[in-house]
Structure prediction request, 180 residues.
Amino acid sequence: MITVRGRRIETLFGEAEIAGEIDRLAREIAATTTDDLLVVAVLKGSFVFAADLIRALHRAGVAPEVEFISLSSYGAGTEGGEVRVLRDVETDVAGRTVLMIDDILESGRTIRYARDLMRSRGALRVEIAVLLDKHMRRKADIEADYVGFACPDRFVVGYGMDVGHAFRELPFVGEVVEAS
Ligand code: IMP
Ligand code: MG
Prediction:
């Protein structure tokens, strides 16, 4: 338990645990991927995970190209939720093997939208890697190909993830437990 910005944060997944899991994920990805891998990190929440995963991919012998896409997931948790592209990838994905990287798979609407977008542009194969899977929250018919941890049904912060733009800098995944 630590206190940041006057809020008490309980650790759910610690630094060493995350690092070990990312190395395992990278080896799993390396075992099945082609030479020509295009990683697409879904901003903002995935930026820390993506930064660690691409370096673990390097250690596992994979040399990916790296791109970013920023999606608004406003209302994505509700029935009428829609997804919009705020900032697009800058490369042609046609014929490429794409690995989408996201922080959390929750309803699945955001990553399904991104996957379908890459497919509509002619991507050869689209795979999905997420650090956390909140399976109990799924609404869209989609699963990740690579999952770091099953996530409890709680709002988590840190390791790139925020609540109200705070706590992205924490090196671990935690939960805000109470005001101080
Ligand atoms: P969904 O799968 O479309 O419902 O949306 C997943 C996105 O919602 C993730 O990429 C995160 O950006 C965000 N999200 C979901 N749960 C959490 C959480 O517990 N903490 C921080 N962001 C979350
Ligand atoms: Mg996100």
About this structure: The pocket of inosinic acid (ligand 1) is lined by residues 45, 73, 76-77, 102-110, 155-156, 161 (CB under 6 Å). Residues 15-32 form the longest helix (18 residues). DSSP finds three helices and ten strands in the chain.
